[in-house]
Design a protein that fits this description.
By secondary structure, the chain is of the alpha/beta class. The protein has helices spanning 18-28, 47-54, 69-79, 96-101, 124-133, 169-192, and strands spanning 6-11, 35-41, 59-61, 82-88, 106-110, 138-145, 155-162. Strands 3-2-1-4-5-6-7 form a seven-stranded mixed sheet, sandwiched between helices. 39% of the residues are buried. Bound molecules: 5-O-phosphono-beta-D-ribofuranosylamine (GRF). 5-O-phosphono-beta-D-ribofuranosylamine binds next to helix 1 and strand 5.
Length: 194
């Protein structure tokens, strides 16, 4: 029997969990050749955690500031036999130990066309506000490899969307989020087949 690789999804405390749930569903409907083996969140009572539990995915709460955070995270990932880590709304830098243990196997999604509009503090509505202020005519999303710096790893998949004349950060954010639903599964397939 061919065993499918296990993915861990690391979410944040504030996200909607839309990318997480999209990856879980893609793993169940054949959209990606992998299982989601673990969802890790810094906080227990978040929409993402409830949604993962409703899909019968094992979840773990691990606050970013836990003692021995890196070791605990590494142990949990190894115990769940994880081979690919997907960040989806994860809000801090991943410890170096994790990056070393999972070379070219940690991905993140960012709601803009990197290298534009990335870096520390560039998340959620701040990104879309910056895109509108810069009068860009297009934005989009980027799935990229994770490094020890914010939003700097090599891009794997980018999808563009137009910026429309009457866009607000919310309307643009919703259009980018739709592109994210296509981009993350596509990037995962690309990485798993490489
Ligand atoms: C997404 O926009 C993603 O690009 C960014 O954080 C957001 C998470 O949204 N890294 P969700 O929780 O997946 O809905």
């Amino acid at each position: 029997m061919i065993t499918r690789p296990n993915i861990a999804i690391l979410v944040g405390s504030q996200g909607r969990g839309s990318n997480m749930i999209n990856i879980i569903r893609a793993s169940k409907n054949g959209g990606i050749p992998a299982n989601v083996g673990l969802v890790i969140s810094p906080k227990a009572d978040t929409p993402a955690i409830f949604a993962a539990q409703a899909e019968n995915i094992p979840t773990l709460t691990l606050p970013y500031k836990s003692e021995n955070y890196a070791n605990k995270l590494l142990t949990e990932l190894q115990n769940a036999n994880i081979s690919l880590i997907c960040l989806a709304g994860y809000m801090t830098l991943l410890p170096r130990e994790i990056l070393e243990a999972f070379p070219r196997a940690v991905l993140n999604i960012h709601p803009a066309l990197l290298p534009k509009f990335g870096g520390k503090g560039m998340f959620g509505v701040h990104v879309h506000n910056a895109v509108l202020r810069a009068q860009e005519t297009e934005s989009g999303c980027t799935v990229h490899y994770v490094t020890e710096h914010y939003d700097e790893g090599a891009p794997i998949t980018q999808i563009s969307v137009p910026v429309l004349p009457n866009d607000t950060p919310e309307t643009l954010g919703a259009r980018v989020n739709l592109a994210e639903m296509e981009a993350y599964p596509k990037a995962i397939c690309k990485v798993l087949s490489s």
